[in-house]
From TrEMBL:
Family stated for the protein in its record: Belongs to the ArgJ family.
Subunit structure: Heterotetramer of two alpha and two beta chains.
Site (Involved in the stabilization of negative charge on the oxyanion by the formation of the oxyanion hole): T109, G110
Molecular function GO terms recorded: L-glutamate N-acetyltransferase activity; L-glutamate N-acetyltransferase activity, acting on acetyl-L-ornithine as donor
This protein's encoding gene: argJ
InterPro entries assigned: Arg_biosynth_ArgJ (IPR002813), ArgJ-like_dom_sf (IPR016117), ArgJ_beta_C (IPR042195)
Active site: T179
Protein name: Arginine biosynthesis bifunctional protein ArgJ
Keyword set, alphabetical order: Acyltransferase, Amino-acid biosynthesis, Arginine biosynthesis, Autocatalytic cleavage, Cytoplasm, Multifunctional enzyme, Transferase
Lineage of origin: Bacteria, Bacillati, Actinomycetota, Actinomycetes, Propionibacteriales
Domain of life: Bacteria
UniProt keyword Repeat, yes or no: no
Pathway named in the protein's UniProt entry: Amino-acid biosynthesis; L-arginine biosynthesis; N(2)-acetyl-L-ornithine from L-glutamate: step 1/4; Amino-acid biosynthesis; L-arginine biosynthesis; L-ornithine and N-acetyl-L-glutamate from L-glutamate and N(2)-acetyl-L-ornithine (cyclic): step 1/1
Cellular localization per UniProt: Cytoplasm
């Protein structure tokens, strides 16, 4: 279960000396083909890191042969020298693999505003190339960790084809995307259009709706690489469903490992007039520090939910609202519901359901740990 689950990929994770701890800090994922289709989505933060700038350009032709990622330094806000460091990194990988620099994406994570020690990093690249293997996915996942307490990997198996992925991220988790480096691989035969369509649809219901602390990173990168090694051509809808499952799996792992988190809160917004309304309501609740403090204190304070809902522009009538905590409807049709002492918040899991009674569509969200993922009728993307 890793980035080498799909056929046609090798990976490695090594210690380049970027971390004072000596822990693994450089990962390399290589696509051996026969197909080299790729797509990516990146942070929407206007202050973005040099690797993001480079990788966006590298993906203009929707092809990648490799991805090199380092922890121990974000290479963000480092100016022209930082951009040059990223270009040098890609060039070194390309030289060692016999490809062009434009076929190499770069990802970095760590402290902002610090130059990378390039002599160590390039030495790590050389070592990673020699250690590439079809069993190297687990090592690569560990090498991209920063404050993560455990590596994050996921996989999906379709009819003769598969998807594998790895992710890192434990802080600055907020739309869109969230502070993360994610590499997803597949051996399905995809066109560039299919890959891009599927990735954007999958991230829209997973990583784009991930939030634990309301802070957006400068380095967010999610890459999809297709080797086509299975020889199986897939339906776009079917592939998107599998990809979304992998993204949601990784997203839940990121949230479960978020710095200082104590609860996994599911916020379900029902009866919204539109997807946009549902997401606005869910996001308002999730972003309420008072609400999160209440859950942390094991207090089903539904007033904090309602006050957050009331700040939105969503269509609803206050006298029609319902709110439930862990199956207990504490607020019913605009008035006091069941005794809130019946709510058990002793465990890590908490589910808050808000029914706006304004429509028939439903959105589902997960929070602080917090993700919001939209569920339409007859089209579930949760796992």
């Amino acid at each position: 279960m890793s980035v080498t689950t799909a056929k046609g990929f090798r990976a490695a994770g090594v210690s380049a000396g970027l971390k004072a701890s000596g822990n693994p800090d450089l990962a390399l994922v290589v696509n051996d083909g026969p197909q080299f289709v790729a797509s990516g989505v990146f942070t929407s933060n206007r202050v973005c890191a040099a690797p993001v700038v480079w990788s966006r350009r590298a993906l203009e032709d929707h092809t990648l042969a490799a991805v090199v990622l380092n922890s121990g330094g974000a290479n963000a806000c480092t100016g022209e020298p930082g951009l040059a460091d990223t270009a040098t990194t890609a060039a070194r990988v390309a030289q060692r693999l016999g490809v062009t620099p434009a076929e190499v994406a770069v990802g970095s994570t760590g402290l902002i505003g610090v130059r990378l020690p390039m002599d160590k990093l390039l030495g790590g690249v050389d070592r990673a190339v020699t250690e590439l293997s079809e069993d190297g996915g687990a090592h690569a996942a560990r090498a991209i960790m920063t404050t993560d307490t455990r590596p994050k990997t996921a996989s999906f198996t379709g009819g003769g084809w598969s998807i594998g992925g790895m992710a890192k991220g434990a802080g600055m988790l907020a739309p869109a995307l969230a502070t993360m480096l994610v590499v997803i691989t597949t051996d399905a035969v995809l066109s560039a259009e299919q890959a891009d369509t599927a990735l954007r649809a999958a991230t829209a219901v997973s990583f784009d709706r991930l939030d634990s602390d309301g802070c957006m990173s400068t380095n967010d990168t999610v890459l999809l690489l297709s080797s086509g090694a299975s020889g199986v051509q897939v339906d776009t809808k079917e592939f998107t469903a599998g990809l979304a499952e992998v993204c949601l799996n990784l997203g839940h792992q990121l949230l479960g490992d978020a710095e200082g988190s104590a609860h996994d809160i599911t916020i379900a917004v029902q009866g919204a007039a539109s997807e946009a309304d549902a997401l606005e309501v869910g996001r308002a609740i999730a972003r309420s520090n008072l609400f999160k403090c209440a859950v942390f204190g094991k207090d089903p304070n539904w007033g904090r939910v309602l006050s957050a809902v009331g700040t939105t522009g969503a269509a609803f009538e206050p006298e029609s609202l319902d709110v439930s905590f862990n199956g207990v409807m504490v607020f019913r049709h605009g008035g006091i519901g069941e005794d809130r002492s019946l709510v058990d918040l002793s465990g890590r899991e908490c589910t808050v359901v808000v029914d706006l009674h304004a429509g028939t569509e439903q959105a589902v969200m997960w929070t602080n740990d917090l993700t919001y993922g939209y569920v339409k009728e007859n089209a579930e993307y949760s796992s």
